[in-house]
Structure formats: C-alpha cells, structure tokens
Automatic annotation (TrEMBL):
NCBIfam families: PRK09614.1-5. It catalyses: a 2'-deoxyribonucleoside 5'-diphosphate + [thioredoxin]-disulfide + H2O = a ribonucleoside 5'-diphosphate + [thioredoxin]-dithiol. It comes from Tessaracoccus lubricantis. Binds 2 iron ions per subunit. This is Ribonucleoside-diphosphate reductase subunit beta. The chain crosses the membrane at residues 166-188. Keywords: Deoxyribonucleotide synthesis, Iron, Membrane, Metal-binding, Oxidoreductase, Transmembrane, Transmembrane helix. Its cofactor is Fe cation. Provides the precursors necessary for DNA synthesis. Catalyzes the biosynthesis of deoxyribonucleotides from the corresponding ribonucleotides. It is an enzyme of class 1 (oxidoreductase). Its EC number is 1.17.4.1. SUPFAM superfamilies: Ferritin-like.
Length: 330
C-alpha cells in the first residue's frame, strides 16, 4: 500500500511508521507551536505612524493577500490533500498544518486589529485588485479540480491532479508567493522598523518552511510510488505551471510597490521571486530558469534549499529532517 488512498479504515495505526519524514516534520511542527499575542505588536505602532503612505500601502496590501489565502490553503488541504492520503503520520502532520494556517490567519487579524488600517479596503483588495484576484483564481482552479469535478485517486489522471494541487499550493503559493511577501514584510526590520511585526513573520516563516518540506516530500513520494505518472509531458506541464505563476507574481508586486519604498522596489522583489523559483525548480529536480543572484541575501535563512532529487527519476525521495527519522520505524 502506498501513501495515496481513500479507505476510511486504512491508516488507523501509527506504528510502525512508514514515512519517517512525515513523523519528523510533525514533531518539529509541534515543537514550533506559538500564539500571536505572545508578541507585543502594539510596540510597533509608533513606527507605523512614521512610515510613508507607500510603506503603509505595502503593509496593508500584504495583509489583504495573506489573510484570505491562509484560509484558502486550509481548503486545499482539507478537500484536496487529506482525503487522498492514507498514512497516519501524514494525517497527523496535515492536521497540525491546518491548525497553523488558522493560527496564521489569526496572526494577520492581530495585525489588522493593532494597526489603524482600513479593514474593508484590506479585505476587498483580493477581489478588487486584478493582479491579486488572478493569483487567487489560479489557486481556486486547482481546488475545483480536486473537489467539484471529482477525483479518482486510483487512476493516473487522478494522481496527476493530486500532484498539480500540491504544486499549486505547497510549491507556488507557499514556496514562492508567500516567500515573496515575507521578503517585503521583513524588509521593514532591515531598516529598524516594525521589529515585533518582523518577529511575527519569522514565526510564520518557520511554519511555512516545514509546509514546503512536507509538500515536496509528498510530491516526490507519490512520483516514486507511481512512476507511470511521471512522463516527460507531465514534467513539462509542471514546469510551465510554475513559470506561469511567476508572471502573475511579477504583476502583483508592481501593484504592491507601485513607486517603491526606501531600499526596495518591485523589480528587486521580482528578482527575488525569480531566484526563489530557481531554487524551487531545483528542489523538484528541474533545471533553473532565471539564473539570477539573490538580491536579498539577508533572507537566506528563510529559504533553505531542500535535499536535491530528480523530480522524475528519484529512487529515494525521503527527506530525513534529522537523525530521529532513523528511529521512527521501530
């Protein structure tokens, strides 16, 4: 039995653990548990009032995007991932990830409640701003393929839709689009602004790095266990899917920073997006596309490159996060 399946009575025993990487990531996620109100965000209010209109626009714009999309990720997990995975250890991790997405939503609510921003405008932007709405529609399209249109996970077509959904959410949304926003959010701290807000983002990034590791491990495990899925044509489709997402992010960042702010403009952020995308492509075993240098080396700790394996020729796809993994199967 592989990691995919829909049997209600399958995956009810945790030990022996079949996928040590999933158990390790669950342990790390539990150890990372935090709550937004542990950070004294109100101490950043003086900074917020000193910021320029463009800086406040950027911060509000980020909240406009992050807040609904954390909940969108939960829909993708609940309807497009959890029902199609059998392993108990994977279910444990996914349950913790869903709690983390809810916690991130509450963290961004905390920002909206603390800083004097126009909540109605912030909430409306993900519908009213074309570049933001385009990104959301891209993601929603993959949930619909997993739910409203039905999915037979026992077929090659169903397995490919499952992989597409993981690429859309774990790699593109969480691994590229969110990290682009994190870079802008943390850039304020680089200028000694919004330091507590920066700490909040640090904690969110720590969670998201595990989400990314889980998603890539899951993709590679599905491909290893189901080699018939991984054709050259499917590889080309996945690569193009990721590159198309970059074009959407480039347009979004131009709306995020229409005039730029001190030390940062849309093109710098978009170079970071291209740099990140090359890292994600490599993590999936593809060749890089953009070959650009990292314009935000101070973000290096936030985008650790995972173990490199070949997306379509992997023979051992398990990413063991630490030495505990070797003991999990006992």
């Amino acid at each position: 039995m592989g990691i995919l399946g829909t049997g209600i009575q399958d995956g009810l025993l945790l030990k022996p653990v079949t996928y040590p990487w999933a158990m390790d990531l669950y342990d790390q996620a539990v150890a990372n548990t935090w709550f937004p109100n542990e950070i004294q965000l109100g101490e950043d209010l003086a900074d917020f009032h000193r910021m320029s209109d463009d800086e406040r626009h950027a911060l509000t714009y980020l909240m406009s995007y992050f807040n609904p999309n954390e909940l969108l990720v939960n829909k993708a997990l609940a309807f497009g991932v959890y029902p199609y995975v059998n392993a108990a250890e994977a279910h444990l991790y996914l349950a913790k990830q869903m709690w983390e997405e809810a916690n991130h939503c509450m963290a961004f609510e905390y920002v909206l409640e603390t800083f004097p921003v126009d909540r109605e405008a912030a909430y409306g932007a993900h519908v009213d701003v074309a570049s933001m709405a385009a990104k959301e529609e891209f993601e929603v399209r993959y949930i619909r393929r997993m739910t409203e249109q039905g999915l037979d996970i026992s077929t090659v077509a169903g397995k490919r839709d499952f992989v597409r959904n993981l690429v859309a959410y774990n790699v593109i949304l969480e691994g590229i689009w969110f990290y682009s926003g994190f870079m802008v959010a943390l850039s304020f701290r680089q200028r000694n602004l919004l330091r507590n807000f920066g700490s909040l983002i640090d904690w969110i990034v720590r969670d998201e790095s595990l989400h990314l590791k889980f998603g890539i491990n899951l993709i590679l495990t599905v491909l290893e266990e189901n080699p018939e899925v991984a054709t050259d044509e499917f590889a080309a489709e996945i690569r193009q899917m990721i590159l198309s997402a970059v074009d959407m992010e480039v347009a979004y960042n131009r709306d995020l920073l229409p005039r730029g702010i001190l030390g940062l403009n849309a093109e710098v952020v978009n170079d970071y997006v291209r740099y990140l995308t090359d890292r994600r492509l490599e993590e999936l075993g593809f060749e890089p596309e953009y070959h650009v240098a990292n314009p935000a080396k101070w973000m290096a700790t936030a985008n650790d490159t995972l173990q490199l394996v070949n997306f379509f020729e992997a023979t051992n796809t398990s990413y063991e996060v630490n030495a505990m993994a070797s003991r999990r199967g006992d």
